[in-house]
Amino acid sequence: AAERKWHKNQKQADLKNYQLLLASFSASITTAKAEFYHNKFSSLTDSRKLFATFKSLLNPPPPPTTCLTAETLASFFTGKVAAISNQFTDVTCSSSTTCSAARCPSTEGVAFSSFTSLTENETLALLTRSRPTTCPLDPIPSNLLQTIAPAIIPAITHTINASLTSGVFPTAFKQAHVTPLLKKPSLNPAQVDNYRPVSLLPFLSKTLERAVLNQVSGFLSQNDLLHQNQSGFKKGHSTETALLSVTEALKTARAAGQSSVLILLDLSAAFDTVNHDFLLTILSNMGTSDNVLSWFRSYLTGRSFKVLWQGQLSSAHSLSTGVPQGSVLGPLLFSIYTASLGQVIHSHGFSYHCFADDTQLYLSFSPEDHSISARISQCLSDISSWMKEHHLQLNLSKTELLVIPANWPPGLRSKTTPNDPECSSTSGLQPAKTGSCHPAAH
Questions:
Q1: Per-residue CA distances from 402 to 255, 259, 399, 405, 425 (Å)
Q2: Residues 6+ apart with CB under 8 A from 156
Q3: What's the number of CA atoms in the CB half-sphere (13 Å) around residue 227?
Q4: Cα distance between residue 168 and residue 183, in whole Å
């Protein structure tokens, strides 16, 4: 909270308060660790146990060995995205795309056709203020690059400006190394579908993206084109603001004697299945054109990845859909791509809030309203149609529905039953519970 207050006000007093709290927190952590290890070792009187404890701390257990290979994992990640994409009609800028773009906010007579070149000081600020994440594709460690940045900043500035003015994203920056991570520690490490891909991108690639992000965000903000109900990857917003927005609305409704229904939508490989033609059409409708639109087309196309797994490196796999995960621009582009979903949700009287690719929609109603099940069914049906139109797939096993009942008088419960047995908790008068909800069934 202190950090956000300082970022918002930029006052020296707020910065000092944040630094004091941070120092106090770090000191508390250090003290707690010291006490933990002191108690752990002082209780060991057996030298064998003592050295075994030292060994376990200094040499953590290696990751579980499996028969999986880098090529197997790479083929799985590619095949998963292809399986989702192949479900949809292969069209480019068809009537459905035009319809989607028409629902997005647009600018009348305002265009963003060219980027502004950076000065060397602006490039240096972008380079040195970024977190020095290092990718195996980087020629030198990122923190070393930041150290020597003043000596090579003219060359880096020239590279960035050449990309901005030509509308071409460098081919060398379109490669990624993917590290598979288990989704949960309890899952079987031998099953390939228990892993999620984590992309590592070159540091200079992300520096160029930050230069573009600053200018694109400024254009979208000035023309009121940013997604208002999106808390993910937006300055001044976080998971906290998303949770507060939803929970306060539900608490307010209950205080007013209303029941509420909350639906949690989850997507499968959402970032990886974004259709490039659709996204470029939406960007064009929002005012980007000429050099800027060419740059985004170059940024999206021709990308590839290799999986790095237990010292092995797979062959290169090309990407024909999606926005790069782990990138700087990917989250903003996904937010733009899904902005029109809000209009579908609002058309049924639902409110909603998003964080990245997770969407929470909710509706408050009188406990005596018997039309709620039908409204939920129709809303989910239209959302399912929107998803298909945008080549996105709902993860039905993780899409959940929760009913929050009001304080009803006795005798009002269980007066109605839902139409869809798959969504048994959608009745406006059922007790609060959760259940998987299958929009496709409607």
A1: 18, 11, 10, 10, 7
A2: 123, 127, 149, 204, 207
A3: 29
A4: 36
Q: Which of 92-96, 203-207, 376-380 has the lowest mean pLDDT?
A: 92-96
The burial class, CB within 10 Å (0-12 / 13-18 / 19+), for 179 is middle
pLDDT tens figures, 254-268: 999 999 999 999 898
Report the length, in residues, of the chain. Answer: 442
Nearest to 399 by CA among 418, 419, 384: 384
DSSP reduced 3-state for 301: coil
CB-based contact 403:369 (threshold 8 Å): no
Using CA atoms, how far apart are residues 392 and 395, in angstroms rounded to an integer? Answer: 10
Tokens of 381: 């049906």
* Contacts with 215 (C-beta within 8 Å, 6 or more apart), sequence order: 115, 116
Segment 17-25 mean pLDDT = 90
Rg of the chain over Cα atoms, rounded to whole angstroms, equals 25
Q: Hey, what amino acid is at 16?
A: K
Entry pTM: 0.75
Report how far residue 230's alpha carbon sits from residue 88's, in angstroms, rounded to the nearest whole number: 26
Reported as a single tens digit per residue, the pLDDT across 174-217 is 999 999 988 888 888 889 989 988 889 999 999 999 999 999 98
Q: Is residue 41 within 8 Å of 284, Cβ to Cβ?
A: no
Specify the pairing of strand 312-313 against strand 303-309.
antiparallel
Query: Pairing relation of β-strands 259-265 and 358-365?
Result: antiparallel
CA distance 346 to 361: 9
Q: Report d(CA 213, CA 327) in Å as an integer.
A: 11
Query: Which pLDDT score, from 0 to 100, does residue 442 have?
Result: 36
